[in-house]
Amino acid sequence: MSVRKLKPITPGQRFRVVNNFEEITTNIPEKSLTKGISKSGGRNNSGKMTIRYKGGGHKRKYRIIDFKRTKFDVSATVREIEYDPNRSAFIALIEYKDGEKSYIIAPQNLKVGQQVVSSETAAPEIGNACKLKNIPLGTVISCIELRPAQGAVMARSAGSSAQLVAKEGKYVTIKLPSGETRMILGECMAMIGSVSNSDHQLTVSGKAGRSRWLGRRPRTRPVVMNPVDHPMGGGEGRASGGHPRSRNGKPAKGYKTRNKKKASSKYIIQSRKKK
Q: Is residue 206 part of a domain?
């Protein structure tokens, strides 16, 4: 993967850095695996705005992704590597031996024509999915389940990966992209390899209009609001706004909001890194 900087022939392209999309092999999605998306624009059923700063955005179709990989012991061939407007990672169209097609999150370095399989005893090769208890220690993994048969919920975005660092009893220990180290049941599934499109973080939008295409409306800074609208609003002139906090008064930027009595805390060995 690589990125390229555009020539500044327009103001919006002066700082624009785009993805080369070298891995993409087609721009037409599989029709049987797509469906329409209806947008709310942040409004409820009576038309009242209940979520601020949402609206607009380009028309999209949702690609149905197989996050569970439950078709076991049937090898599949990678047919296409595709762009997905609904996520930062690329997706791969795979076709099983029986003719069934499916979309999966594409791992880094996955090639068209390559064979992938989901199995309890699958080899630790790029694109294969198997249970955590059967993956060798030190393996780089992604698309990890938190509970068995739940479907992948962790390490799914572009360039993300986790590492399996230990096994003990029915649990395995993994180090997540955030830096958190936690225990997960060995029965949970995971995919071998890191997620594709690692250069996504290097792209630069270049203009505000691209945010509108993504469905984001302009966001008003709290310090320029009135006291009635936000705790950080008001004051004479350009006041700093006081201690950073949310609209309902909860402190931000360092204030811990996690419930100490949360049941899953006992599975966290080391909390995520502080920025």
A: no
